[in-house]
Design a protein that fits this description.
Chain A is α/β, with parallel strands linked by helices. Chain A folds into two domains: 220 residues, Thiamin diphosphate (ThDP)-binding fold, Pyr/PP domains (Rossmann fold, 3-Layer(aba) Sandwich); 109 residues, Rossmann fold. The longest helix of chain A is centred in the middle third of the chain and has 21 residues. The radius of gyration of chain A is 20 Å and the shape is globular. Chain B is an alpha/beta fold. Chain B has one domain: Pyruvate-ferredoxin Oxidoreductase, domain 3 (3-Layer(aba) Sandwich). Chain B is 38% helix and 22% strand. Chain B has six helices and six strands, in the order βαβββαββαααα. A six-stranded mixed sheet of chain B has the order 2-3-1-4-5-6, sandwiched between helices. Chain B starts with a strand and ends with a helix. Classes of the chains: A alpha/beta, B alpha/beta. The interface between A and B is medium-sized, with 23 and 19 residues.
Amino acid sequence: MSERSLMKGNEALAEAAMRAGCKCFFGYPITPQTEISAYLAKKMSANGGLFLQAESEIAAINMVLGAASTGTRCMTSSSSPGISLKSEGISYIAASDLPCVIINVQRGGPGLGGIQPSQADYWQATKGLGHGDFHILVYAPASVQEMVDMAVNAFDKADQYRMPAMILADGLLGQMMEPVTFPEIKPAEINKSWATDGHKNKRKHNIINSLFLTPEVLENSVIARFERYKKIEETETDAEVYLCDDAEIVVCAFGATARVAKSAVNLARDKGIKAGLFRPKTLWPFPKNELLGAVKSAKAILSVEMNMGQMIDDIKLATECKIPVSFFGRTGGVIPKPMEILDEIVSVGGAF
Amino acid sequence: MLNEIVLAGFGGQGILFAGKILAYAGLMDNKEISWLPSYGPEMRGGTANCSVCISDDPIGSPLVIDPDMLIVMNEPSYDKFIENVKPGGTVIVDSSMVDKECQRDDISVFYVPASSLADENGMTGMANIILLGKFIKETKIISLDTLQSAFEKAIPPRKKDLIKVNMNAVKIGMEQ
């Protein structure tokens, strides 16, 4: 294990991407993710990669489409409004079955919104990041260390399944510094015989395309993609389960909010309330089975989010509405306080 | 043991750097640490602050709302944070910048004319580090040796002359 160093989440993620073999970065500045661009602008060339600040978010995502077509590991990063701009390109990349990594360091929305931390892009990331029938892998880190570990994993999984993977972080994780270690990283060796990387007249040329004018052909390509999604939903879910064995109230939270929620769960335990925490690490695929395991003794679920309650539907679907789900959240860039969540736990779960 | 610290002042006073040094000191002591800056338009000319947590256990929220310890370098920040300090807490005030005296009797407040001391000692701009010296003297959560190695870690080799200058500022703070 290498030495602990102190880094901002944004910088640690950028370093991890380079170590994971990312050779092309295309970005456009926006608070609170600009340190990713700044870090890679300094280091990418020296590492044999390419850093390019595009003229817009839309240009950047289409450059990703081009680089990904060649089988090169590539990445773009932005924050909420910028991700909306990229959504058309992300749909094209998904439709072309191309791997890439997209970073969203979320800020308050909708519209230009604010620049403080938020999780209000949950729906966008997990349900509808662009037009058409498609999903992307969505990872939700809760620490600077996970910004590193999940970024590395995202590159591998994107390659393995030939689809975009997103790190859904937020301004808190991007801006904060924590100790972080960089494990020995061995990027997965993945066959990319589909890549348009020059056939030299030795093989049939490859075509990367997202236009299928014959409905049956398009339907088949979508169905094939959904067969893969099914497998991903079975094998790629991940979650942290904390003090849930005997928990009567299970708090569900992801990302930075889960840290605050964990403090609240500890405070509730001190008061003798049987509280636990369930933290999805993958948002798509949503860890349904892990949640079912965590709520075995639960009488109530409390979803805590930095938005107006976007994860509630997924919790209700996973638990088939058998356990009441209540909600506490702050939005617009306000970070919930441990005491606020504790009050909510007490009012929901204190009666048992 | 969790120590929650807020450092606050104007942008440009070195609030974020002083916080970073505390975080590096925690790193050197093998503690769990977090450092969270305020970010955004308020950093230019307005108030800047950062939250630092130093703990034996994993840290929940990195955002400090009720600090155990406060270092404060201007009046707007003093007004904003002084009532939030936990009872029993410690406050270090740059009294060249804050012309107020705390009425609370449940916290320990130390007044150091750090900005004037910095100017008098030919180290203008290092009031933040002088306050850090007073801070470690009164709170004892970080040793002088740890602080020295924090500077060594945080300051890049090409600027290593600054380590000594910073340690001199720390010593001035500790004499107060």
